[in-house]
Structure formats: C-alpha cells, structure tokens
Amino acid sequence: MKFSGFTDKDFEVFTIDGLDERMDALKKQIRPKLEELGNHFNPQLASLTGDEMYYHVAKHARRTKNPPQDTWVAFAANPRGYKMMPHFQIGLWESHMFIWFALIYEAPNKVEYGKVLEKNIDQIINQTPPDFVWSTDHTKPDAWKQQTLSKADLLDMFTRLQTVKKAEILCGYTIPRETATKMSGEEFIDKVDSVFKTLIPLYKLS
Asked: What is the tally of structural domains in the chain?
C-alpha cells in the first residue's frame, strides 16, 4: 500500500471552530486516510488474532454541539461495532497519533478481563516495552509510559477495571505530532505494524 502519511494540515483540523466546519474538514482531510489504514490493517489483524476482523471509522454521529477533539479507525471482531469488544485503534488528537489495544467502558467482559490481567501481571510487565503507554480513559489525551509505572500502579488499573463501572484500559504507543509529520507513509505503516504485533498477547488474554 502506498500510504501518504500524516501532515500538519491533518492535525490542524482539530483547531477549526464549529461542529459542522470541523466535521466537514475531518471527512475530507482525515477520513480517507483512516479508510486506507482500515483496509490495509484489517486482513493483517485477522491473521494475527485468528478472528475475522472488521474496521470502523469514527463517524462522531451523536455529536450535536461540541466538535470532536480526536478521531480514529477501530478494528474488532464484530461487523456492527467495536465499543463492546476488545479492539485496536489508530487515530489522532491535535497533539499526537495513537495506536491502541483497548477495552472501554461498554465492554461486558471488563470484570473478567481485569481478573485475567491481574493474574498475568508479571508476563504483561515483561512483554510491554518501556516506551509503550497505558490509559484508563479513551476520551482524554493523557497516557502514562510503562517505564514510569510500578507493578502497584498497573495493579490499581486492573483492579479498577473490575470494580468501577466507567473504567477502561488501553495500552499502546503514541507518536508526537512533530514526529508523525516527519514520518513517511511507509515508516508510519511499519510502526503501526510493529505496535500491533506487540499488543496481540493482550488481545489474546481477552
């Protein structure tokens, strides 16, 4: 696939005022690239996970007032949607790109998955690279690097997943905007490819 990569113009979409104006720019500027990434990575993730996968480009359809601050393509083993499933994402905020494995608050098997993560915590620590990041809320841009987290910190996240209704867990990799805009399309594809391969064990645990 000849992917063009991401430019400053893509990130600047999130500075456009007004819901309709920003949505129009998202559709024209970023959505075609997310569609390309969806088509490219879908068969690969199917092969890596052993599940039939479907990609879903964010539509932001429920928004009536606030323009979206980020956008993404998600991959899950369900043609109707991804939010209730363990899934993968590639997307961007104004400040950075993200590549995630995620289980968000709508997933019905969160409690069970939290227990599995807790049980396999040593294995997870060993297989997660130090520059990978963790998040507990997909609606916020913040994330914590693996190398800054103690075993107790991770345990807190895994316990929270079992006990707090709105809890979420995301693990992956972020690329600052200034780095992402310098990457060729090929470099970006290679990086996503490598991150997904590293995240597959977390998907298998789910």
From this structure: 1
